[in-house]
Amino acid sequence: MVGQSPAEPRAAVLLQPFVHQVGGHTSMLTYDEHTICKPLVSQELSFYESLPLAMRQFTPQYKGIVSVHLKKDSLGNLTLIASPGLGQPDPCGRLDSAGGDPAVTLWHKCKWSHTQVTKTFKDSCPGKMLLRTDLQYHTDSLLEDANGKQAERKSYNPWGLHCHQQHLNRMSSKHNENKLHQFLLLENVVSKYSYPCILDLKMGTRQHGDDASEEKKARHIKKCEQSTSASLGVRICGMQVYQADTGHFLCKDKYYGRKLSPEGFRQTLRQFLCNGNQLRTDLLEPIILRLKALLAVIRKQSSYRFYSSSLLIIYDGQEHKEGVDQHLPFPKTHGTNPSRVDVRMIDFAHTTFKGSKINPNPTPYDGPDHGYIFGLENLIKILQSLLEGK
Q1: Cα(268)–Cα(254) distance, rounded to whole angstroms?
Q2: How big is the chain by its Cα radius of gyration, in Å?
Q3: What is the 3-state secondary structure (H, E, C) of 130-197?
Q4: Which residues are CB-contacts of 320 (< 8 A; sequence separation ≥ 6)?
Q5: pLDDT at residue 265 in the model
Q6: pLDDT tens column, 204-224
Q7: Average pLDDT, the chain
Q8: Contact 244/275 with Cβ under 8 angstroms?
Q9: Out of 23, 54, 58, 368, which residue is the most buried by the measure of CB atoms under 10 Å away?
Q10: pLDDT in tens, 325-358
Q11: E strands within the chain?
Q12: Cα–Cα distance, 93 to 157 (Å, whole number)
């Protein structure tokens, strides 16, 4: 890290695609090892600013806001630069050198479609370290073919790169380079995992927000009716699971998840807990306990509707024997939750609740989000049946 005096402006940060993004359509970007950022949506900011205390252990930590602008180099490559010094707090510090960033290391291991990662100093930014990443996205690297088998042959999850490229293209077509954009800074909830296995679940029986147009509302209702969202209150939006036998991640995307029957959902859930050699039955009970703790919290949140939000189930694909290594790269323990698993709610751009700063008079809802509860209860039942060997 470049040394700086207190009077110096804080270093600009070149934002990279978050290599562990498995779902969604918004580009998630790496700010530093423990922090990601995403485009600011007022309703999501309002949620984080008024987050009930009981929910904080089930959501990423909100770390503030940062200004971001688009930059095009002499070769026409588009990049996003975060500028912490432009009137915004920088609660996360500067980006560490590339050599110590496990996300970059994993990027090399997983053979992402990029040329190289190098550290450069820009003449226009003396004393500021930028991490330069040249990216190439190939449309033929999408996860599924017509038979749904392509993912098994892939060694990386290209979804985050796909979202990032689309985001850059949208920004460059709509805005000039000097325009500042506001991004949310959030905790990277998988930063302590060596091989993060992630399941992204779209929760609830309804996905459209109160502000959705009639066309968008109809589209989301159709997606729910034709997927497990209607029958189970939950559907798979993305997945990566480390396969110990091949050394690669097995990946599934949202299109795969939409096609699943309830039995297909159950089998994919089982696949998420299989490391290529065996079913990780040791993870089932801690995941169930964590989901039950979340269910108890959601039942007490009157007026909240978590439309279009997701739930992440996370564990480390690299098995360790407890008690052997006291420096395991796992998240801290939450209550009764053994540290090897985690459950987090994410994506609150369409979450509504009484007293929202953005929409002070939202559609009035009483009681808890029953669609979300329905999904959680079914998820727990399926995991419980796997635990019982059914």
Answers
A1: 13
A2: 21
A3: EEEEEECCCHHHCCCCCCCCHHHHCCCCCHHHHHHHHHHHHHHHHCCCCCCEEEEEEECCCCCCCCEE
A4: 328
A5: 98
A6: 999 999 889 999 999 999 999
A7: 79
A8: yes
A9: 23
A10: 434 444 443 334 445 899 999 999 999 998 887 6
A11: 13-17, 29-32, 35-39, 62-72, 78-83, 114-121, 129-135, 181-187, 196-203, 234-243, 248-253, 305-306, 310-316, 341-346, 351-352
A12: 28
Sign of CA dihedral 99, 238, 290, 294: positive
User: Would you identify the CATH topology of the domain 192-319+338-389?
Assistant: D-amino Acid Aminotransferase; Chain A, domain 1 (3.30.470)
Tokens of 390: 């059914």
Neighbours of 106 (CB within 10 A): 18
Could you tell me the CA-to-CA distances from 365 to 117, 175, 324, 352 in Å, in that order? 49, 38, 50, 9
Total length of the chain: 390
Q: How far apart are CA 315 and CA 191, in angstroms?
A: 11
d(CA 232, CA 368): 18
Tokens of 332: 């801290």
Residues 112, 19 contacting (CB under 8 angstroms): yes
Could you tell me the residue ranges of all domains in the chain? 9-88+160-191, 192-319+338-389
DSSP 76-96: --EEEEEETTTTS--TT-PPP
* Tokens 């939750």 belong to residue: 337
Query: 101 φ, ψ to 5°?
Result: -95, 110
Q: How many CB atoms lie within 10 A of CB 76?
A: 7
Residues 6+ apart with CB under 8 A from 169: none
Q: Determine whether 85 is exposed, middle or buried from the number of CB atoms within 10 Å of its CB (0-12, 13-18, 19+).
A: middle
